[in-house]
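Here is one chain, start to finish.
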Amino acid sequence: MPTPFRHTLPPSPKSATGRTAEVFEQIAVDFGIERPPTFVVLSSVPELLAPAWALMRESLIAGDGSRTGKELAALGVSLANKCPFCADAHTVLLHATGDHALAEHLARGGTPENEEHARVLDWGRRTRVPGATLTPYPYPAEQAPAYLGTALAFHFINRIVSGLLTEQLLPGNAQRFRAVRSLAGRSVARTVRRSAVPGAALPLLDAPGPGPDWAAGTPVGPAYDALRTAVLAGADLLDTDDLTLVRETLWAWDGGHPPVVLRGFPNRRERPAARLAVLAALAPYRITEEDVAAWRGHTDASLVRLIAYGAFAAVERVETTMRVPAAHT
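Its structure:
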């Protein structure tokens, strides 16, 4: 069977031990899917795997608000980031919530007929643009930590998936067929519709801080803080000039996708690490074998760390828009 992974070959999750095994056990129970490639691809770096899962779990799965609403927000993010793998996954998960007509309408490229649903989907799309006006929120203010955490989790996950996985959610792109989408959704429906206990992922993390103000003291905050700490450790893969280049590029970014000809991107031969980090941030689906090969001497773990660093550079740029305490919205 063809591997879903690009550029790396993660260790078999069946051989996982310690914290990695604990993460996969929790994923199977709370996500309803054993060893999903979305997280397996991070397993060569356990210190990234645990907080990436924790942020998604504590916001999308266990956070306040309807699962349908948060799936719509995540779908909006995934569409804005041009991540077909994740967009298809959220369509399937909408089937799992029981919103079959909505799932199929969106799968055909439609806009939700329900105004509230349409506003949440649009809000998710707009979170890609740094400085975009995200308030008033299309959901109750007390649910903001969960929705904001969901958006940021998928700004990270989309970039990891687009950079390191193929676009096929299921073998042969079987998710293109309505019956397959519906069946896949129904297979995890019981898990998706079950209430998850908030905070259960936090014991998997290494003493995180409380997190940003918008998390309002919820478990979303420590999960975000832990992911930020783990990702920023990847700065040691870039030299000072590379780090400055990545930072300046992201600060100037307006949320757009780069043109076909990548003018202004770091040169592959001169700055291969910076090029990979900037691509991971702005257009991870444009990372090529040549880009990876130009960064000589890397291991799978170091490549995952570098892609994660670039991905989170975009997350942090987006997060600057969200630095408003949820209680004040």
